[in-house]
Amino acid sequence: MADTTVEQVLQRPYEPSLFGTYSKKIGMWLFLLSDSLTFGALLFAYTYGRISNPDWPTPFGSHSIVNATVMTGFLLTSSLTMVMAVSAASFNNRKGAIGWLLATMFCGTMFVVLHVREWLGLISEGMTPMKNPWGAPQFGGTFFTLTGLHMAHVTIGVIYLGIIAIRTGSKYFKPEDVEVSGLYWHFVDLVWMFIFPMVYLMSTKIT
Amino acid sequence: MASEDAVIAQVEEAHRHHSKTQFYIVWIALLVLTGVEVMLAYQRLPPVRMLSFLMVLSIVKAALIIAWFMHMKYEIPRMRRIIMIAGVVCLCLMCIFFPDAYRILRMGAQ
Predict the structure, then answer these.
(1) Which residue, of A155, A196, B90, B96, has the fewest CB within 10 Å?
(2) Is the per-residue pLDDT at A66 higher than 90?
(3) Are A138 and A187 in contact (CB under 8 A)?
(4) Which of A54, A35, A9 is closest to A152 using CA atoms?
(5) Closest Cβ–Cβ partner in A20, A80, A201 for B8
């Protein structure tokens, strides 16, 4: 649809995309590629530390693992509701799309709330980015950087979806905007599929 | 150009007309795989072996999300190949640091 707009401005035949899709989606995919490298570097740094430090802390007891598993459940469910929003928008079902977008925002908000609760628990046990009471000091720095960046992405995603939901109810509604925001949201979910096992499950406290 | 327009139209239709049941199946598969990961975490496995198992499961989950939820399987082959090859190659290049982590481990770092 964006290509059609360009064609109208140019007033002459417009060459279609090489990738068989509209430019907004290609732009989002390129952004996600660059963002995956950022998260990839942080995940590799964390895993490097985990492998090379025999005294890497394992502070996550069953309570933390249950909390992180519920967080994962919320994020996976939010991906399902997001894909339903994209589907509803593609059929111009605005009411359905807004409902699914709000459900996605709810799941995202629950994820952030549970994550903040997890952080506060760790901080109260004496963990900071510089030190922790359990072992290798790098643990705190890598943990807070990695999960903090992800939490920032989820928070931005919830705001982004809110804006898209408002636009879906207005005259500015475009189905492809819902699809592009969906790509961002699924990427946030995708990254967590690596953070959850690498950070939490690899540092489980087994008693 | 007409054939290119037809390709875009076909891609758009493929994005719209797919069964919602597929999405529920993928969602359940992701939840089950997450459960398997949590069970694995409580097995007393060496870290490197545990990491290998978890990485395989994470890659399967990532593939499900990209293919179905991000609709990559409905894109044209050119788009699929360029995006996926670029992402995978760049991420794999970072693996060059892992042998160094094993070296430090073998040195018996405390």
Answers:
(1) B96
(2) yes
(3) no
(4) A35
(5) A20
Residue of A nearest to B60 (CA): A193
Interchain contact, B82 vs A19, CB within 8 Å: yes
Q: Tell me the torsion sign for CA atoms B57, B59, B61, B64.
A: negative
Instruction: Report the half-sphere exposure of A71 (CA within 13 A, side-chain side).
Output: 28
Q: Please identify which residue in the block is written with the tokens 């037809």.
A: B6
- CATH classification of the domain holding A50: 1.20.120.80
A72: left (phi over 0), alpha (psi -120 to 50) or beta: alpha
Pick from A33, A69, A201: CB nearest B87? A33
pTM for this structure?
A: 0.88
* pLDDT exceeds cutoff 60 at A2: no
Residues 26-45 of B with CB under 8 A from A: 27, 30-31, 34, 37-38, 40-42, 44
pLDDT tens column, B1-24: 555 566 666 666 666 666 789 999
**Other beta carbons less than 10 A from residue A15's beta carbon:** 9
Asked whether the predicted pLDDT for residue A54 surpasses 90, the reply is no
The minimum CA-CA distance between B5 and chain A, rounded to whole Å, is 7
Q: In total, how many domains does chain A have? A: 1
* Residue A110 covered by a domain: yes
Is residue A173 a part of any domain in this protein?
yes
Taking each helix axis from N to C end, the angle separating B20-41 and A62-90, rounded to the nearest 10 degrees, works out to 170
Rounded CA gap, A1 and A23, in Å?
Answer: 9
Express as a percent the part of chain A with pLDDT over 90: 77
Domain containing residue A88: 27-203
The per-residue pLDDT for B101 is 67
Q: How confident is the model at residue B91 (pLDDT cuts 50, 70, 90)?
A: confident
